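Fig. S4 source data, part A: sequence.
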Amino acid sequence: MAEIPAGPGEPLDALLRRLRGTLAAAGIADAALDARLLLEHATSTDRMDMIRDPGRLVPAEAVLAAETMVSRRLAGEPVHRILGQRGFYGLTLHLSPDTLEPRPDTETLVDLVLPRLRAIAAERGRCRILDLGTGTGAIALALLSQIPQARAVAADIATGALAMARRNAEANGHADRFETVLSDWLEDISGRYDAILSNPPYITRSEYDALAPEVKDHDPPRALLAGSDGLEAYRAIAAAVTLNLEAGGIVGLEIGASQKDDVTEVFEAAGLVLIDAAKDIGGRDRALVFGL
């Protein structure tokens, strides 16, 4: 591991330059951004502090905290895992070893279903959302933040993920409209929902073996792996989803970039119809919406 020169206390701007240089020298692609995020977290500062008072002396203990974080980054730990949180759809979500790190790709699914769910809420005066494999609670909480009439049930097979989802609901002010259920997909789900949504695992074993260490070594495998063809979770959801779907409701799914046709086939075989689709910011197929 690369050595980081020690300092008893440094000006804020000098410390940022030093940490950025350390990361850049190690070949970290987003060295400038990572250094800024880690420094701000370690020193409880923000970008305006750097503008207003760049010469502010950072105490030695905060310098050490920033250096420790940078050492973890040099060892391959993703920056948001080090921070313990990540922004998603305007929310700050805490992470744990049981949760997938929410990424911008999943915001594509939220964007796709949001207009339909707003329309349901306006028409019916409520909107019941089921988020399967909730992890941090990202999908459900993003929608609760946008639809005041909505309530959400968040399901996951990992108790640690459910605990983190509840923490995120409380931290973002949505706990009164959010509940969690321990369930293997729809196995222990009761009631009907206007929207059943999921970002399920969809990576094949061969794809998993080829993942970058930053993903493979830090995201929980069961949130990524989905059998030899990447479709196991979709089959499990499709097999039971119509039992819990309200009339006029939707099923919304994140998918892998090459899975649109295969996932569509799985859900059409279960009696659903593809009604909408969206690509992510990179132009890849990323989200599908089905209806009865």
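Fig. S4 source data, part B ends here. The longest strand covers residues 245-254.
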